[in-house]
Amino acid sequence: MTISSAEAVVQQQLDAYNAKNVTEWLATYAPTAEQFTLHGERFAFGHEEMRARILVRFSEPDLYAELLHRIVMGNIVIDYERITRNFPDGRGTLEMMCIYEVTNGLIQKASFAIGAQKLLS
């Protein structure tokens, strides 16, 4: 199976996320990339806003994204993930659908659908 360049950059993004490496994570995004809630508001524009948001997330000791399924169609990559997080009420998980649009080897837009939080016992 051949891995597309779009899939490769999204995998690099996921690997950097799980390594909590903000520099490598941002390197997968265009400088003017945008992040959105699915069908909703933009919550980050550009590296400066994205860096501020991800540094908060990377401070969580149990943060980890497990890829459950991936669909690739041209320059669009859709990941279905289970995210382990440290919520105010304790350690837990949530499901997330991540839709990435890749152009010229960088993520230009990303939209996220976030499922309900489940605390782990």
UniProtKB/TrEMBL annotation:
It holds the Pfam family SnoaL_2. Keywords: Isomerase. It comes from the Bacteria. Gene3D superfamilies: 3.10.450.50. Residues 10-108 form the SnoaL-like domain. One of its GO terms (molecular function) is isomerase activity. InterPro entries: NTF2-like_dom_sf (IPR032710), SnoaL-like (IPR037401), UCP030561 (IPR008317). This is Steroid delta-isomerase. The lineage of its organism: Bacteria, Pseudomonadati, Pseudomonadota, Gammaproteobacteria, Moraxellales.
